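Tutorial sheet, problem 5. The two components below are modelled jointly, 697 residues in total.
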Amino acid sequence: MNTPNTYRAGADDDGHFGIYGGRYVAETLMPLILAVERAWNEARNDPDFWTEFHDLMKHYVGRPSPLYLAKRLTEQLGGAKVYFKRDELNHTGAHKINNTIGQILMAKRMGKTRIIAETGAGQHGVATATVCALFGLPCIVYMGATDVERQSPNVFRMNLLGAEVRPVTSGTGTLKDAMNEALRDWVANVDDTFYIIGTVAGPHPYPTMVRDFQCVIGNELRDQMDEAEGRLPDTLVACLGGGSNAMGLFHPFLDDEGVEIIGVEAGGKGLDTDQHCASLTGGKPGVLHGNRTYLLQTDDGQILDGHSISAGLDYPGIGPEHSWLKDSGRVSYVSVTDAEALDAFQLCTRMEGIIPALEPSHALAHVIKIAGTYPKDHLLVMNLCGRGDKDIFAVAKHLGLDMGQTDQG
Amino acid sequence: MDMSQRTETRITRKFAQLKAAGRGGLGAFITAGDPDFETGLEILMGLADAGADMIEFGIPFSDPMADGPAVQASSLRALKNGMTLKKTLDMVRAFRQRDDETPMVLMGYFNPIYIYGVEAFLVDAKAAGVDGLIMVDLPPEEENELCIPALAAGINFIYLTAPTTDAARLPKVVEKASGFVYFVSITGITGTRSATSADIAPHIERIRKFTDLPIAVGFGIKTPENAADMVKIGDAAVVGSALVQVITDNLDGENRARPGLAAKVHQLVSELAAGVRSVAKRPTKEVV
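Model answer (C-alpha cells):
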C-alpha cells in the first residue's frame, strides 16, 4: 500500500476507509442513514453545534480530563515516563459519554423524539440513559440477556435514569445480538427514532461521527502534553473493543510521523484458543452491522462470539477505520490475555490508587510489557478510559472470592 | 436498462407466463436446511407441486438483522445442524435435477457470499441453477459488491424497495434491478405486522412509474386472504415467516422434525396458492 498524504482524511464520500466501512444496511434504513449523514455534514460545519458540545463537555462531563504522570508505576517499570489520560474521571466513569452527548445533540437537531441504543457491559447504555434523562427523551436500551444478568448494577442504573432495558435472547444473546435487535427496532421506527451507536462502527456516517466526538480525548492530550513536556508524546496505547476510545486518542496524532501508536485487543484465553475477542489480530475482513471490517467468523462467514474477561471488549468486530489503519501499517495492533489484564488491574490499583476498568487494564498490561524497553525521556500515554467499580465482582471471582454476584463469563 | 438486465431467466419467463394467464404469483420462502438438510430438501422438493410459482431460498446467517423471530430461529436451527452456503447450493442443484422451470432466488445477507468469494460463488450458483439474488444488506450504494458482477454472470439481482424509499430515491434503486422488484410492504422486520392492498397501492403505483419490472410484495403476508389481497395490486406475493412458523410448530422438544412436517408446509403453500389464484388479473399494462 502506498503511504497516503494524510491518515486523517477518511471516510470518503461513500463512507469508505480504503475497502472498509460503507453502508451495508436494509433499504428501509437507507433513506434514514442518508438523512443522518446530511445532518452530520451540516452539524460538523456548524460552530454553534460545537459550542454546545464543548459547553456540555466542560460543565456536565467535567472535561478536560487530567493528564496524569504515574510516577510510582514509571519507577517500577524503569523506562518510559508513563502518563494516564484520565477519562475514567468523566461523569458516568468512562469515555462513552463524549459520544452520547454528541449524538443526543444530533438527535435533537434532527427532531427525533425517541432514542435507542445497544450495550454490552452496560457503560454505553448508562451513558445513553444519562443524556436521555438530561434531554428528557425516552430511551430503550437493548442488552444481551446474559449481559443483563451479569451486569445487574448497570441495569439498575439505567432503570434509575428512566431507561427501559430490553433483554435480547435472539442469536446468542450477546452484544452483537443487541446491536441486531437495535437495528430491527430502528427499521420499525424510522420516523421518530435516533439510534445512538456506542462505538466507531456501523454504517457511514457513524464511524466518522463517533470518532469526531471522541477526538476530544486526543485533542486535549496534544495541549496537555505540550504544557507538561513542551512536545508531542512518543507512544500512545489504548484498548479496543469496537475501538472508540482508541480512535479518539489516536486520530489527532495519525499524521505525526514520530508518534508510535498501539491498539490493544482482548486476547481472552489466548489467540491460539477460540476464546478471544481479537478481531484485528485473530479475525478476517467481512461485512456485518452496516460496515466491512475485520470480524471473528467461521469459514462459512458466520459470525462468532468473542470472549473476554472484560464485557466491554466483547464484540466480534472493530471499527472500520482501525481495519484500514492496520492494513496501512500506521497503527500496530497487539493483544493481551485475560490473565495479563487482571495482573495489570491489580498493579494499577495498588501502586497508583486507581481502580481501572478491565478494558484499559488490557492497555496497561501492554504498557507494562513495553515501558522498560524505552529510555527515561520517552513519553508514553495510555488512555485510562474507564473506572473499575463495575468490575469488582468479576475480579473478585477471578481471584477466587465470592461477593454474592454472578460475574461475566 | 442495459442488456444484462434483459437476460432471460426462469424468473422472467415465469412472470411472462403469469401475465399471460392473468393471475398473480406466489413466492414461497424457506430457510435452506431448516430444520435439517434432509427435511429441508423434502420441503423444497414439494413447494412447486404445492403451488409455489417461485422459490426464495434463504441462506442461513448468524446475524439476520432484518428478520423477525421466526426466520431468525430458522437460520439458527439450520446452522446448528451444519448448514452452509455450499450445502445451500447443493440443495439447489438437487432441486434442479427434478425441476428446471421454477425460478429459484437465493435470499440472505452478504457476508457468507463475500467469504465464499463473489466470483466463485456466481460461477457455482449459476451452474447450480440459481436465477436471482436478494441481498438484504446490499443497497444500490454497494452495487459493486455483487449486483454488477451478478448481472454480468447472467443472474438477476433483485432490489428491495421499502415504504421509506421515496420518489427521489426510487430511480437509483431500480436502475440496476432485474428479474423483479421486491416491495417490502411494512416498515419493519419479516413476519411481524401485515399490510393491506390499500396500504401498498400508492407505493406500488409510485414504483411502476420508474420501472416496468414485475413487483413482488413481501414481509408480513401470512394468510391466503392476505396473499390474495396483495396480488390485486402486486404481481406476486411472497410468504416466508408463516411457512417457517409451520416448521417451528412441528418440531419436537429437541428441534427435530416430527413426521409429516413437510406435508404440513406444503398444505399451507396449497392454501396460499389457491388464495392467489382466486384473483383474476387483467394483463399488467405496459409502462414505457
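Marking note: Chain B has one domain: 3-277. Full credit if you identified this.
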